[in-house]
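Troubleshooting log. The previous structure file for this entry was overwritten by mistake, so regenerating from the original sequence record. Sequence copied from the archived sheet and checked twice against the printout by T.R.
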Amino acid sequence: MKKVAILANGGDVSGFNAVIRGIVKTAENNGIKCYGVIEGYKGLLENNYVELDSYTNASGILYKGGSIIGSSTNANVFNYKVEENGQTVYKDLSDICVENVKRDEFDCIFTLGGDGTQKSARDLYLKGINIIGVPKTIDNDVACTDITFGYNTAVSVAMEALDRLHSTGETHHRIMVLEVMGRYAGWIALESAIAGGGDVALIPEIPFDLEKVAEKIKNRIAKGKRFSLVVVAEGAMPKGGDLTVKGTRDNGEGVDNTKLGGIGEMVASRLQELTGLEARNTTLGYMQRGGTPTAYDRVLSTKYGSKAMELALERKIWCTYSFKKRKVRFSTTRRCCWRK
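Regenerated output below.
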């Protein structure tokens, strides 16, 4: 093994760079050259990459948010959007990626990403590319792993927001609603609510009844607590209701084009009607994905990065590996590590 490449894809998370650093350092310790593919699968398609080393461009990146090699959220190379004769069409351009990897003589590609990223990685493996997938999402919903890097930082940011909302809610006797990310998983909402002293957590896994939420808030008022903190996941929905959708993307088939958002405003408005207390919503948004990673995410990301390179050296390819019971483990194609 002489030459490997790292590809970061999907939404940015705190810890991307720590994983990159872990791979690079372990590669260097074994005499292997490491390259970064620019802007995810888009860079793989365009054959755009740069050499990385821990003394120049991959130095001092442990604390940085985002990705030093960029990322792409709309580059499905198996259904890629192109313009032809003034019209938008979608084509399978994956064979171009395969040709680029083989021509550049990359022995292995590391794919840092979530469900969509690893689905494409699996399909590239089936076309003959050596792949090692590193599970990534702040939503913490990649199958077969207990925790993904970026999640702890997102929860910590949401917890700090709740700490601040607590003081203003208590001062002005208001219901403070915090809408957090998570897509169809309630991990961020639930754990930030526990850590931040939230009074109610509304998560996608359990359809909610605002009448019961209002009853709880009224009980708090009766006991002298004239404010409440409500955390709601963007994918939460009422019993018998639907998701609150902000819009749709045009990223082609095979990816989730739904843009969630707006549930916080709906919950705040309805609770104000039901309780008589003023209610205010704060949508935390991209604050959860950006910025400096926590100590936990720095360590976890470093473990993921170094282990990924070790697995490549052991020729355990294809695999998507996971973090279970405080140990990094690998899973082959016989143990699917992505949602269908």
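The two ends are 32 Å apart (CA to CA). Archived copy saved in two places this time.
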